[in-house]
Amino acid sequence: MSTTTEKAATPPPAPAGRRVRKPSMGVQNAAGWLFSTPFLVLFTVFMAFPILATLVMSFTDFGLRNVTRPWEANFIGFENYVKLFGDEKFLKSLFNTGYFVVIGVPLTIAIGLLTAVLLNNGIDRARTFFRVGFYAPVVTTIVAVAVVWRFVLDPSDGLIAGLFSEVGWSAPDFLGSEKLAMPSLIVMAVWRNVGTVMVLFIAGLQAVPTEVREAAKLDGANVWQEFRGITVPLLRPTILYATVITTIGYLNVFEEPFVMTQGGPSDSTLTVSLNMYREGFNFFHMGYASAMAYVLFVVIMGITVLQLRLLKDNTK
Q: 235: number of CA atoms within 13 Å, CB side?
């Protein structure tokens, strides 16, 4: 009975001499371009064209008067770029951005790695709860983050002011002090972005073979020796990726100073992106702001290539 059923279910053989034709290469290419067309159109209109237009604008004196008549902008060559490196405000914003990156990136990487190790090995209960809690600031809007941190840092009624008052001290004005404003923004940025790095490191830690750790323990390695000699070397590709994306993000820092300090006090938190925004949309010096954008682009590219060359050899 089963043999009869199997024979009935067997499809009839294809007629002799009849072959299944595959689509030609031309048809496959045409189908690929057809499905890619919506993306290509959107990319060209909203990405490629603005990038090229900004590059052209950086060599002109494009301003408010040229918004409706862009063809009337005057070509001035490298004048905007030369002017940038004689502009004290731009140089200060460049220094502030570098300060933000040099302090913020190592802190973010170190705290993210430490948090990932603790959540992966040291905490057994409610591990998912802690992971979600550390990642929550990443998906929280900057407005909500600003409200929380303004309350924390408020020198009169803030959370830290309350702690200082318990011991009879007066809290410093974190966002109103030239010396403390930028460190305060760095702490806020690290708190907000450490969740992204933590997730990357947790994924990297879970890819470390358990056999290697067990062999190290059998050889008498303690926790620190295992971390330094096994975990860190095997995490170098992840460290490279986390460092590169964190550095790029911090070089483009805009939201924190824009919302919290507006670049003050006395331009102590003015970054290149915020300075670019002011020149372009407050003063309508579009050509000058475009030149600023491309200088920042070159800086980002240079630092990224340098990081890849310094760290990539260690990942092999």
A: 27
Q: What pLDDT does 275 receive?
A: 95
Angle at 42 between CA 36 and CA 47, to 5 degrees: 120
Burial of 246 (0-12, 13-18, 19+ CB in 10 A): buried
What distance in Å separates the CA atoms of residue 209 and residue 126, rounded to the nearest whole number? Answer: 24
Which amino acid belongs to residue 191? W
pLDDT of 106 = 95
Mean pLDDT by runs of 10 across the 316 residues of the chain is 50 56 73 87 91 92 84 90 93 96 96 89 69 84 87 85 83 89 94 92 84 76 78 88 94 92 92 94 92 94 90 57
Instruction: Return d(Cα 249, Cα 109) in angstroms, integer.
Output: 13
Query: pTM for the complete prediction?
Result: 0.84
Quote the pLDDT of residue 228: 80
Calculate the alpha carbon distances from 116 to 167, 202, 234, 244 in Å: 34, 5, 14, 18
168: left (phi over 0), alpha (psi -120 to 50) or beta: left
What local confidence, expressed as pLDDT, does residue 289 receive?
94
